[in-house]
From TrEMBL:
Residues 1-149 form the FPL domain. One of its GO terms (biological process) is endosomal transport. Keywords: Autophagy. Pfam families: FPL. Residues 276-288 have a biased composition (Basic and acidic residues). This is FPL domain-containing protein. One of its GO terms (cellular component) is late endosome. Residues 317-326 have a biased composition (Gly residues).
Length: 348
């Protein structure tokens, strides 16, 4: 079929006429075929087809009729590591074909709201694995999400920034906080038993913290202000304040200490270009602080003028067709660095 896509269209037409994708879905839907060799073979075949088809019309036909969405949503046996590996490769192969046109075939609309998709199975199913115990699975999920965030499409962004999908940013910030707390506990254990302590656990935690921070920078570098604002607010409230600043502030006198998030937002709000700064120059009241932003208040983040996020994009691969040069570079370079058994940051 792949050869026919590039040399003889009748081969691909035969594939479509016989509804072979529907047959693949039927196979995977059988309870006994959701694990083992059958599931592995079907997922591998689908990945190879999607990766190697070049004709744009063929890609549209392959992604249409909702068959791919239904296969993505099938509950496979992820306790089988081989099945999980092929499933992740399947999702990545689809994401590499994403652009503003093909992504429309993966958004499901129910007709009640023409600006907000009902579901986006590729994105939501991948997010379920974002804190999987295997580092390569986590890296694949991050690469896929970066491909989604790089797409300049309002429907995609509306879905990503609306509950329950938007909860991912809060969960990611809380996950990073957990990793930092685990790092702190591991360091304390190392100090207590330096003679018998193994550095492998410490290296793994440090690598994960580094990976998440690099991934966060890559998300901010996608250039979508709405996504960046959502990420910034959640990381401030669920990572920076509780994990980084609150421990430092515990020693301060209570009369001189207020909530770090409110104080920081107040300073931004009262800056020379902010509304409080202008009010002060015009004789407004002093000392009034705005309320802290709620976790999901993206508009509030823009209203209070959160600092511009650093768009650090290093030269390197674009993430295999995500549509934003260099966006996935740091995350993918770290993953490749880890695959070769290296520790620390990869060379620039």
């Amino acid at each position: 079929m792949i050869w026919g896509d590039q040399h003889e269209p009748r081969f691909f037409e035969f594939f479509l006429e016989k509804h072979l994708l529907k047959q693949f879905r039927r196979i995977l839907s059988q309870p006994g075929a959701r694990t083992g060799n059958v599931a592995q073979q079907v997922l591998q075949t689908l990945s190879i087809m999607i990766q190697n088809i070049r004709n744009e019309t063929s890609i549209y036909f392959l992604f249409s009729n909702n068959q791919i969405n239904e296969m993505i949503s099938i509950k496979l046996d992820f306790e089988d590591e081989e099945v999980l590996g092929y499933y992740i490769s399947f999702l990545k192969a689809i994401a590499l074909k994403f652009n503003e046109q093909t992504v429309q075939l993966f958004l499901i609309m129910d007709g009640t709201d023409d600006k907000l998709p009902t579901s986006f199975p590729l994105y939501t199913e991948a997010l379920k694995l974002f804190r999987h115990k295997e580092s390569m699975v986590r890296a694949a999920v991050r690469t896929l999400t970066l491909s989604v965030y790089s797409i300049r499409d309002e429907l995609v962004r509306n879905f990503v920034l609306s509950p329950p999908a938007s909860n991912y940013f809060r969960h990611l910030a809380m996950y990073l906080t957990e990793q930092c707390q685990l790092l702190d506990g591991t360091l304390m254990s190392a100090e207590a038993s330096s003679a018998s302590f193994s550095t492998d656990a410490l290296d793994n935690i440090l690598a994960e913290v580094e990976d998440v921070l690099v991934y966060t920078n890559d998300v901010l570098a996608t250039g979508c202000q709405r996504v960046s604002a959502m990420m910034a607010v959640n990381f401030w409230q669920h990572f920076l304040v509780p994990c980084c600043f609150a421990p430092l502030a515990r020693g301060l006198d209570s009369s001189s200490y207020s909530d770090p998030a409110s104080a920081w937002i107040g300073e931004v709000h009262a800056g020379p270009n902010g509304p409080r700064g202008r009010e002060g120059r015009e004789g407004g009241r002093e000392g009034e602080q705005p309320a802290a932003l709620p976790a999901d208040d993206t508009q509030g983040a823009q209203r209070h003028r959160l600092p511009a996020q650093p768009h650090v994009v290093r030269a390197g691969p674009s993430g295999g067709g995500s549509g934003a040069p260099g966006v996935c570079g740091d995350t993918e370079r770290l993953a490749e660095h880890r695959r070769h058994g290296c520790r620390g940051a990869p060379p620039l």
